[in-house]
Amino acid sequence: MRYQHIFGPVPSRRLGISLGIDPIPFKTCTYNCVYCECGATTNLTTDREEYIPVKVIIAELKDYLDANPKLDYITFSGSGEPTLNTGIEEIIDFLKENYPQYKIAVLTNGSLLYQKEVRDEIIRADLVMPSLDAVSAQAFRRINRAYIGLEIQKIISGLIEFRKEFKGKIWLEIFIVPGINDTDSEMKLLREAIMKINPTHVQINSLDRPGTENWVKPINSVSLKKVVSYFKDLPVEMITNFKSREKIASFNHNIEDKIITTIKRRPCTAEDLSETLGIHINEINKYLQALLERERIESMYLKRGVFFKTTKDNN
pTM for the complete prediction? Predict the structure, then answer.
């Protein structure tokens, strides 16, 4: 079976060996984040529906999992917001009942958790990884560019309610965009919100490969340490400190080689590589990041988006 809606397993810095589930069409999301590595959102929406039929996803999962692969997590992620799919609860129930040996993670922007039905649908997951990048309305608009009607205070209230109901782990991610959400005032607001949410961990992230907008830059190490100091008495981790993807068992150097071979012929976007190589864009992005870190490739912004090409040493 050639899988369309599951991918990997991918070498995840935070989750180890992770099999991905993508239950949403490409770039269907409630946000259009300036830092998103998958590019601009093309279907900005809060409409929930069974975008990908549950029976199709379950058939792919059964085919793959019946071989009893070694996995650290099965993760709902992909190239959009997974909680937009109304069938997410049925998929989680299927996994819990048929493959209880695997832990389930949900990677979400958290924007729909103010809805009780959404919270109920993911309640059986083992780990939920929501994001919270800003608390002030101005910073929220500039970074996340949410669908009209999504208000940050309502989203924070949803996260607080979910923490009360959820028995698993919550790893709350904050993506730092220098000049917007790293100010003293925004850090104070974030700290107050985190105290109310009470996540298991807070994970600080920053740009490590090109995002949607070329003005978004990585935070420098001095500023990053200052940001972490705001939360020093909280369970804070820096994602940059997680182990290299190359040290994860699922890392596949053949995929790297295919990427290098392809972009030697001509520069490509991540989406181009995904279509050409038949590999899910999330998986492509993991390997692009590893190649960028080792300076085997470099990026450039062109009219159609972010393109990748080999560095001089790899030509």
Answer: 0.83
Residue 288 lies in a domain: yes
Total Cβ atoms within 10 A of residue 47: 11
Domain end marker among 242, 266, 300: 242
69, 72, 153, 141: which is closest to 110 by C-alpha? 153
Give the residue from 216, 242, 268 where a domain finishes: 242
Q: Clarify whether residues 293 and 198 are in a common domain.
A: no
- Nearest Cα neighbor of 63 from 12, 98, 88 is 98
Please check whether residue 119 is in contact with residue 160, taking contact to mean a CB–CB distance below 8 angstroms: no
**Confidence category of residue 74, pLDDT binned at 50, 70, 90:** very high
Q: List phi, psi (to 5°) of 47.
A: -70, 125
The answer to whether residues 276 and 138 belong to one domain is no
Let me know whether 183 and 298 are in one domain.
no
User: Do 107 and 166 sit in the same domain of this protein?
Assistant: yes
Q: Which residue has the tokens 């992909």?
A: 78
Please report which confidence band the pLDDT of residue 86 belongs to, taking 50, 70 and 90 as the band edges. very high
Residue 79's nearest CA partner among 53, 115, 42, 129 is: 42
Q: Token match 């649908």: residue?
A: 121
Q: Say if 1 falls within a structural domain.
A: no
d(CA 245, CA 286): 8
Both structure tokens of 220: 């420098």
